[in-house]
From TrEMBL:
Gene3D superfamilies to which the protein is assigned, alphabetical: Phosphorylase Kinase, domain 1 (3.30.200.20), Transferase(Phosphotransferase) domain 1 (1.10.510.10)
Pro residues bias (residue ranges): 22-32
Top-rank taxon: Eukaryota
Stated name of the protein: non-specific serine/threonine protein kinase
Source organism of this protein record: Glycine soja
GO annotations of cellular component type: cytoplasm; nucleus
EC number: 2.7.11.1
InterPro entries (alphabetical): GSK-3, Kinase-like_dom_sf, Prot_kinase_dom, Protein_kinase_ATP_BS, STKc_GSK3
Pfam families to which the protein is assigned, alphabetical: Pkinase (PF00069)
ATP-binding listed as a keyword: yes
Family: Belongs to the protein kinase superfamily. CMGC Ser/Thr protein kinase family. GSK-3 subfamily.
Amino acid sequence: MASLPLGHHHHHQPAAATIHPSQPPQCQPQPEVPRRSSDMETDKDMSATVIEGNDAVTGHIISTTIGGKNGEPKQTISYMAERVVGTGSFGVVFQAKCLETGEAVAIKKVLQDRRYKNRELQLMRLMDHPNVISLKHCFFSTTSKDELFLNLVMEYVPESMYRVIKHYTTMNQRMPLIYVKLYTYQIFRGLAYIHTALRVCHRDVHPLTHQVKLCDFGSAKVLVKGESNISYICSRYYRAPELIFGATEYTPSIDIWSAGCVLAELLLGQPLFPGENQVDQLVEIIKVLGTPTREEIRCMNPNYTDFRFPQIKAHPWHKVFHKRMPPEAIDLASRLLQYSPSLRCTALEACAHPFFDELREPNARLPNGHPLPPLFNFKQELAGASPELINRLIPEHIRRQMGLSFPHSAGS
């Protein structure tokens, strides 16, 4: 499990839970809710009932029945909803405890339109990666107002990167570089998996959605070439410039821009582009990258024709960060934060960047002497990668342990 130990300030490691695409979690709406079978999930190996709580979010008990496939006995699992950990237009996320095992889980409760399948559920049932939050199971519930809610039961990871950043900011300290590398490397591993293996774009990468694992796929979507998408997506500070320019045929490189913003924020201790609104967000980007050329604007959105921008020169990247910043960190940020989406490196190329070479050292350790979490147990994300790239991604000592053999590139 690719958890991230954070030294003496942060002790909790995420619970290990894996779902396999061949055995997707199933969910079943409440039988009393009328629905058309074509619109909702129809598998019948999970049901759930709120048996206490009177529509309250916390303090009630939810009982679900799972199993019953391939001759296995059905099993009832009960959860006590303990506290709200997140709210938004989507609904609410609360921490709950399994009464049978004591295990902590996160349950995301979203209002379900009976006419449509839930995209987040469809995507999460496919996810199986150490750096992506795992779906344990799901169920539907109703309220006294006859509203239908989808409940996604996921592994609970208590620490968000936002809180870790805030910890170091409060202490007037910069995050140790080894932690920056661990965090961002695992972000790129998760993105490489969803971009390559699933062809999914997250569309809302920011520090609150990186709890060592990518989570919150409420905005995620499979991108199809030629298919239009909404441009008002992604939290503002991390929104790629092509979205600000109104592009609707964007690519997963919008996630790469967002991850670049997260990297810069970890290095700086504050957001790199803290725009107060959509227009100001573009101004903040121009202050650093300079005014985009006509060609760069065309690459971001071919339909954008208003070119009236003040001509501002790019601010040198080495002046954006403090003087002692390693040149590899500056180089990676510059490769991620490019106006032209096609010029940004891919998530897998980012993982192979020299900035992360320290993680590939045989004797790499955390500051407290503990070993690093597993970082090289790659899955389908290596499909299609060149032998040279794979050689850079999997260090020789790991290849020897795994008995792997790849052709050596010239000079490697």
